[in-house]
Specification:
There is one protein chain. By secondary structure, this protein is mainly α. Helix content is about 70%, strand content about 0%.
Length: about 375
Amino acid sequence: MKMNIPQEICVYFFSLSALGVLYTMNNVPAFQHPQVIPVVGVVVMLAVFLVVYLAVRHRPPKDPLFYVFVEFSFTCVISLVIALEQGGFTSGFMEFYQKTGEPYVVTAYAIMMSYWDGVVHFLLYLFMVQRMANEMSYRSMGLFWAGSLLANMAVYVPGIIIGKYGAYICPTYWLNFPFLFGALWGAISLFNRPRELPIIPADQVAAEQKRGLLSRPLDLLLVLFLVGAMGFTIFRGFVVLDCPLDSCFTYIYQYEPYLKDPVGFPRFMMLLYLFYGLPLLALFVYGLWKPGCTWMLDWSLFFAGAIAQSQWCHTGASVHHRTPFTYRLPEGRWWAIVGVNLLYAAGPQLLALRCALRPAFFLKTVPADRADRQKKTN
């Protein structure tokens, strides 16, 4: 009797082999030299690819992103070990890495980022592999993942350079670039795939699109949120650009001093929000006002993933004990600033849910006779 083990279960247990690699490197001094660590990293990842390729050679996956997800799920375990070790929950795996690999993994931002990668991204990889194995679409989930990982790398990779750790760049730093390129490739690949659009009769689509913004209270609330988020994005952008206005000076010193943390991550994140997030927020306002903007279904998911990851890292790091006391949120402002940051993160999630659950307003109109024919064939 042949037993077929689900692929996601295989990926899960295979990823745990990263613990053996880390333990070996932590206890063999020859593997701890700054020049050796990246070489070992490349060899291990090539070995992972080779093992996976040989394991599925009789039934090769149709989607090349399968290999990306398996590789990255392996590194998710490493990220989780980094976070747990920095939190004091475990030891004996990563002491060498923070000394001779990437010393900035001890920062609060990197710890929060590692938690997100080791839990959220890992679960997403398992779910997407499961849907691949069952020949089900995972495009929506994939867009959320792509936005999350790309936001992760877009802040982390340049933030290291511009922050105080820019003078301590080790060869291991370059191991972050495969994740940046993998996120870019994944995003481009997923955006170019056909959308998962429901079949809705033309009369229902037309009726929904005739309703003005004032007759759609949920959309009106989302527009008000987006406008408020745009203002907050501009304001915090001015703050990190050292705007001389008294309000900016007061905010950075009395409300959110984490923005001036010399690690560089919060400053660069606010600049990304200003130059990339702000235009998207404005486009979302347009998409909620103008019917037929089908691109809203994709970009709302991508943006939701990016903001969820970014705000988790930013908010968590601003209150984390690894952040110097000078840059942590003041106790008297703690709940207010955390609340604002959580609201800033929740809005895009609600927008993505609205687009996914009630997409009629964003669809192109379909003739009624064609919709009837499609319903009969299903």
